Amino acid sequence: MLSIENLRVVYHDVISVLNGISLEVKEGEVLVIIGANGAGKTTLLRTVAGMIGFYDGDIIDGDIKMNDVSIKELDSADIMKRYNLTYVMEDRPIFNYLTIDENLKAAAYSRWDNKIKTDMEEVLDYFPVLKPLRNKKAGYASGGEQQMLAIGMALMTKPKILLLDEPSLGLAPLITEELFGIIRKLNKSGITIVLVEQNAYAALNIGNRGYVVEMGRVVLDGEAQELLKNEDVREFYLGAGESKRKSYKDAKRYKRRKRWL
Amino acid sequence: MTDLLQTVGTGTLIGLVYALLGLCVVVIFKASEAFNFAIGEFLVVGSFLFYIMFFDLNLPIFIALPLGLLAAGIVGALIEYLTIKPLLGRNPISMTMITLGLWFFMRACVQLIWGSDTYSFFLDLPDITLETEQFFFLSDPIWAGIFSILTFILVVFFLFRTRWGLAIRAVSEDQAKAMAFGINARFILMIIWAISSICIAVAGVMISNFGALAAGSGIVGLRAIPVVLIGGMDSIGGALVGGLIIGICESLAGAYIEPMGLIGFKDVAPYFVMLIVLFIRPYGLFGTVRIERV
Fold first, then answer.
1. Using one digit for the tens of pLDDT, what is the confidence trace for B222-256?
2. CA-to-CA distance for A228 and B178, rounded, in angstroms?
């Protein structure tokens, strides 16, 4: 349903981050995107969500198509309204100085129907840990609670596609597991999920398909289970390559990365 | 003693107007972290717009006031659209620089349109002069205090009880996050500027009502600086307290220090208080304590 074709994005007119990336999201799947820091994963999500302009980035080539209609000219509010696409930014995009209740209401700002109250209860049922904290400032919640709130806020927008940017950032392994369980549950309820992760093993385990991104390009793609078995992925992202010691120079499988920032 | 109470009372009334001025600055600062230096000129423009409606077109006040304020709001939104919006997401310092430029630009525009003459300004509000054996409060300052506090309460109600207000508070905290959740941050910023210029216009009309209106009246807008610095740049309650402190201290200085031969000390006193407060609390009395989790 969502396809990205040969996309090139440049920040501040000089820093080239996405160099012709192409990928496709199919309806109802969990798509996992893995890659090192600076590979362009976050930029990709920002661009799809229509927020690249805010960060002074430009699409200089390529296209983003939703059901074969180009959406690269739309801004974030339009994309959300028309295509029910919600982007959950990295590092817990919550409003620290609003209460948890207010956070959920603020996230429902783009909606005008009168079901907001019942949806709020529904979201809180997904995340029971948030219930006792409803009237507390969100900034005082723990990291896991904040990330759950962030996903809960995204649910308030009634998404069909959810872009999750590193939801496991800074969370304990147990919490991460719980979170990924919830993500899988959301997917079962019919939400297409694009998951950007550093925690490649956990992410590929709940994903259907995966892409490996390097230097703003897709270098590898395939079924998630295949990727888990792939020699390169195991070595670079799962830290579990062959057991015998290797020479340091052999480790440079991909060409040296050139970074501008 | 009654003398003192009288002075404090007068100061409180004018302090409420200052609080409103402070609120205008605080609302914008919270949203875009830019200090609006052009506040004085917004005040003059707002007052002149009301002047047109009330004195030139001879509309009754209950029509002229909303119309004038609406016009002020539109001007504020327009200025935001033309000058601030292109800078969204950039360094707030550049927005502050823009408002410095607006200050002089708007002053020149006002002088071009209305000249440098003084316009007499007299709202025919019912006389509610408060006169007892010990106290004597003029009608105009009382009206100014009432209108200011009403506007203040309305704005606070709008911010904390409506969905727009919630969106404004969300945008104030983080524009990018708000955009990611479908809040149109650009539109909300425009609303904020409109609200701010409406409030400034209310304050402007009230201040002009004390005397007259001229292109130079904008200088009173600078009172907002000590108000917000004392109260804390991002605190709405701080604006109220700061306004009252400035009003009272100004009136005390006028009553007790100026007779000692220090003519004009009234205008300096607020800055003295500001310096003392800033020495003790660099973020102002109610400046935000950043949330830090343990």
1. 888 899 999 888 888 999 999 999 999 999 998 88
2. 36
Q: How far apart are the first and last CA of chain A?
A: 33
Domain that holds residue B144: 2-116+137-280
Asked if residue A181 lies in contact with residue A126, where contact means CB atoms within 8 angstroms, the answer is no
**Contact between B166 and A98 using a beta-carbon 8 Å cutoff:** yes
Is there a contact between B130 and B142 (Cβ–Cβ < 8 Å)?
yes
Helix (H, G, I), strand (E, B) or coil at A255: coil
Asked whether residue B223 is domain-assigned, the answer is yes
How far apart are the C-alpha atoms of B198 and B177, rounded to whole Å? 27
CB contact under 8 A, B178 and A106: yes
Q: Give the number of C-alpha atoms closer than 13 A to the C-alpha of residue B29, restricted to the C-beta side.
A: 24
DSSP-derived secondary structure letter, B117: P
Interface A-B: count of C-beta contacts within 8 A: 84
Query: CATH code at B40?
Result: 1.10.3470
The closest of B284, B131, B148, B273 to B209, measured between CA atoms, is B148
**For residue range B79-109, what is the model confidence (pLDDT) as tens digits?**
999 988 888 777 888 889 999 999 999 999 9
The 3 state secondary structure assigned to A86-146 is EEECCCCCCCCCCEHHHHHHHHHHHCCCCCHHHHHHHHHHHCHHHHHHCCCEHHHCCHHHH
Q: Indicate the number of domains in chain B.
A: 1
Nearest to A51 among B90, B174, B176 (CB): B176
Residue partners of A203: CB distance under 8 A and separation at least 6: A32, A34, A180, A195, A197, A210
Distance of residue B24 Cα from the nearest chain A Cα, in angstroms: 20
The yes or no reply on domain A1-84+161-166+192-241 and CATH 3.40.190.290 is no
Read off the amino acid at residue B132.
T
| C-alpha to C-alpha distance for B170 and A91, rounded to whole angstroms | 17
Alpha-carbon span A119 to B29, nearest angstrom? 33
Pairing assessment for the beta strands A57-66 and A2-11 based on DSSP bridges: antiparallel
